[in-house]
Design goal:
By secondary structure, the protein is α+β, with helices and mostly antiparallel strands. It contains 16 helices and 18 strands. A hairpin with a 2-residue loop joins strand 16 and strand 17. The longest helix has 23 residues. It is elongated.
Length: 502
Amino acid sequence: MEELNDQIAQRFKKLDQLRSLGIDPFGGKFDVQDRAGDLIARYGTATKDALEQKPVTTTIAGRVIALRWFGKAAFASLQDGVDAIQVYLKKDVLGEQGFALADLLDIGDWIGVSGRLFRTKTNELTVEVKQLTLLCKALRPLPEKWHGLTDVETRYRQRYVDLIANPEVKRIFITRSRIIQAIRTFLVGKGFLEVETPMMHQIPGGATARPFVTHHNTLGTDLYLRVAPELYLKRLIVGGLTRVYEINRNFRNEGISTIHNPEFTMLEFYMAYADYTDLIPLTEELIVELVETVHGKGTQAIPYRLHPNEDTTTMISFAHPWKRVSYRAAIADRLGATLQQITDPAYVLSEAKKHRCELKGGESYWQLMVLLFGQVVEPTLIQPTFITDFPVEISPLAKRKARDPELTDRFELYIATREIANAFSELNDPMDQRKRFEAQMAERAKGDLEAQRLDEDFLRALEHGMPPTAGEGIGIDRLVMLLTNQTSIRDVILFPQLRPEK
């Protein structure tokens, strides 16, 4: 800490020296002509002779990430976005004032430079700086061993340092932005309208989750941060907006893990006059397009590291057809059970105990099936798989199956052992919906804090009539994890939730 304080003190000392030279340490506007990556792309193969015969001048800006002095000259590496280019600072070219500024530079400073491109004796493309401008003096040095920074706590807590130290991290978040833009382009092309719904709800709904609570002083009432936009988006279907989507932030007061963050991003979209079977090919088409957006046209398989502590990767194939299997059949297959066995509550209870499911006692048949699914099925769902026909008991907003009212018209898409998407034919019977809400409220009365609440206004909306509708939610963060080969959700969220800093 003493060494760090000394380095900071030295940088503050340089502030006074800069000001004595008439230089503002925190400069203003700078007209950038080029980016490092573009220069490397255009002139990366240009020879030394070609650059001398046809001089190329440029003006670029960036952060100093390396600085090496050789008497009255220095080489600096200038980081611009995900790319970096070398610049050459020489007293004979810069002049007294310019070189005095160069002498006060530190790693971390932001500078703008103008000059010509040339190749050094080691053949590295370099900018010979004729004019140097200080854009911002960095008062705090980068952490020790910041090159290739790997300390997880520092990387997540000080993401700004992580972005400086690890260009690959920048690429992940640039890719994330491209994925979201591609989703918008895809849905707009299918006739969907992007909308915005409230993030503070009087009644939390649309998902089985425990909400965060806040308080509105003027209204004198508690409000809940959105756990899902579903009930509002379906209100819009009632109102006649027949294809809507929202890329939204949701908040769920749940645990933190490699696949869970209390604040996360979801895509939800709703399509009138359709059912869940229409969303299966649409989902396949969307995800294949995103795979090609990230990995190139025609890509049918991508590598993914399933286990964080292992370097081996598994190829995930997106070639058609994707597997489809019912919820009950998937469990039966893993247990080697017959249809008669898998519908027997006593057998299911014995299997739940055998597979060490976390039992509290008094679980219903379908609650036991849910535990078994998570224990024996989910870890095996590596290749894209649609799990269909979920039970009503865990699907309070989905339409019942016509041939089996105990089940619903619903699917979840699993890839690399994780749920990526959840979709169903939306329940549009207000009387059935009321009964489902009442069943959820009964579970709340028993102590289930994640059970949904009865929303009278939503029921009133349904009573105005909602056409047959299919709806789907896709977890953007998990999708980005898959497409960028990341094993922790914290690696695809710029500022993940962490414990308070000590």
